Amino acid sequence: MSEKVKILLAEDDTNLGSLLSNYLKAKNFDVTLCVDGDIATRRFKEQLYDFIILDVMMPVKDGFTVAKEIRQTDQEVPILFLTAKSMKEDKLTGFEAGGDDYLTKPFAMEELLARINAILKRSYKEGKKETTFSVGDIQYDYLQQTILATGAEAKKLTTKENELFYLLIKNAGEVLDRNEALNHVWGDDNYFNGRSMDVYITKLRKYLGASKKVEIINVHGKGFRLLAK
Predict the structure, then answer these.
(1) What is the dotted CATH code of the domain comprising 132-228?
(2) Which residues of the chain are modeled with pLDDT < 50?
(3) Is CB count within 10 Å lower at the N or C end of the chain?
């Protein structure tokens, strides 16, 4: 892979968490370590990840709950559960919560690495997540956070603008549900965040001003749609 795989790791055992994080970083993964489920949920809403590792038994919010919340906005990102339990009921609960695999403690680091690589191979073609897009007469680069319309200068996006536009372009031609976008980018679909998102949509339309083929339209009572002519 040309870019590092971004892993969100949630483990409340600080010693094990540091050990896992350092090991995965040594294997060329980009790791964000969280010490409880609530922090993990917030980090997930702040940026996109390629892989999620969740300890089941965590304070504030357990791994199953975190997985269910992630699956409300992202059905594709792989989720691997870590647990000290090996009961069949727990495994079923994990899969029902949206997990892709289950690893029981204690485990060898090599086994964890093998599970991650196997799941990534199944989940992503050639193990690479799509980050560059060509729609109509624009080029969009998620990692560089830029929109480039033919004959115009590239526009650099802020983090929230970038996350919002990524959702729009990934759902190009389809309706992007307003509440789903708010929960994913802002972490809450309250009234004030809704007004904030409307401002960001206006900014994105301005960035697309040079384009003659791409536009963002409102879908009354539902959300937004990115159209390419």
Answers:
(1) 1.10.10.10
(2) 1-2, 125-128
(3) C
